[in-house]
Amino acid sequence: MSKRPRRNHAPAFKAKVALAAIKGEKTLAELAQQFDVHPNQITQWKAQLLEGAAGVFGSEIRSESPAPTVDLKSLHAKIGELTLENDFLGRRAQQGRHVERKAMIDRSHALPIAKQAKALGISRGSVYYLPRPTSAADLAIMRRMDELHLDFPFAGSRMLRDLLNAEGVEVGRRHVATLMKRMGIEAIYRKPNTSKPAPGHKIYPYLLRKTKVVRPDHVWAMDITYIPMARGFVYLAAVVDWFSRRVLSHRVSITMEADFCVEALEEALAKHGQPEILNTDQGSQFTGAAFTDVLLKAGVAISMDGKGSWRDNVFVERLWRSVKYEEAYLKAYKTVVEARASIASYLHFYNSRRPHSSLDRQTPDQAYFNRLSQIAAA
């Protein structure tokens, strides 16, 4: 079998693919098949386009001026300064995980790929390696793992492997662990706080251990979950009011990045004002500056799950259980557009018509707005 030659894509082609990914009407698997590129490459081009978009509006036209006289002493000092900065940045970059360092590679930069790889402390071969996209068999396993995770949220990779094996699905623990990471799920149980933040990300303390939530907009929670489709999958992020269980905003994305979480958060703040506390897990989508800066600017206290807060994870899982068993598993969405519309319709039903036993058979809308009216009248 002949080795596939390396392809150099034109900038216009990269922009076309990245724009299709940003539009978000097709899954990564569908875009990869349409444009004949790997899903990881599409994700990278999308990130590059979003990062460079501001430059389109930030450039300024400057009049030409005579070239300044070269000051060799200042030039040598600047070279020394840049050498120190380069050494510092190189050392810091090499402290990150391999996948994060690989993501720093810029194929469109003038610096050769080999030198970029050397500066980041990774092999050049790993830069060109693209793993295979998710197979149909893995998608089926992931769908069943998602169902088992909802039924047994305490099950780790070993138990999920055993449960799958008992159903006749031949899969090993390591592969189950890989799929769990791709889906963004993990076993829920009391355990030491061994989570490590992404490089440069701050982890905030858990603020809800002794907090009694007795009114709407006191505490909000936000989380991300995996939603299976007929072909591929998407991610759902939601902001939920802790007191009333009301979904205040949500977003569906084909990639698990911070952008769609920030959009959902900004919508909730614009529509409902600021809560006192917002609680999340320690995922990189929530620990990055793009997300936390929005909260800090709004004066919202940031709480992140840590040791002893496992029951609060279970609380968020109840929403995901309802969304999946009452909506996603019954529909097998064929397109991302269909998934977005159908999930939005279900969440409207969840808020306005679905009664909750924990709310004394009220709907989330009733629990949220009735309590706000009582507070306003007091």
Quick gist of this model?
The chain has 378 residues and is an alpha/beta fold. The protein contains 17 helices and five strands. It starts with 10 loop residues before the first helix and ends with a helix.
In terms of topology, how is this protein built?
Layout (H helix, E strand, L loop, with lengths): L10 H13 L4 H8 L3 H14 L1 H5 L13 H22 L4 H6 L9 H8 L3 H5 L7 H16 L5 H10 L6 H11 L35 E10 L4 E9 L5 E7 L4 H15 L4 E4 L3 H4 L1 H10 L2 E4 L5 H22 L4 H17 L11 H14 L1
Parallel strand pairs: 1-4, 4-5
Antiparallel strand pairs: 1-2, 2-3
Helix pairs in contact: 1-3, 10-11, 12-14
Outline the structure in words.
Residues 212-372 form the Integrase catalytic domain. Pfam families: HTH_21, HTH_Tnp_1, rve. It comes from Methylocapsa polymorpha. With 378 residues, the chain is an alpha/beta fold. The model is unreliable at 190-196 (pLDDT under 50). The radius of gyration is 24 Å and the shape is globular. It has 17 helices and 5 strands. It has 3 domains: 11-52 and 84-128, no CATH class; 136-183; 219-377, 2-Layer Sandwich (Nucleotidyltransferase, domain 5), CATH 3.30.420. The longest helix has 22 residues, at 72-93. It has a 5-stranded mixed sheet, with helices on both faces. A hairpin with a 4-residue loop joins strand 1 and strand 2 (233-241). Helix 1 packs across helix 3, helix 10 packs across helix 11 (173-183) and helix 12 (258-272) runs parallel beside helix 14.
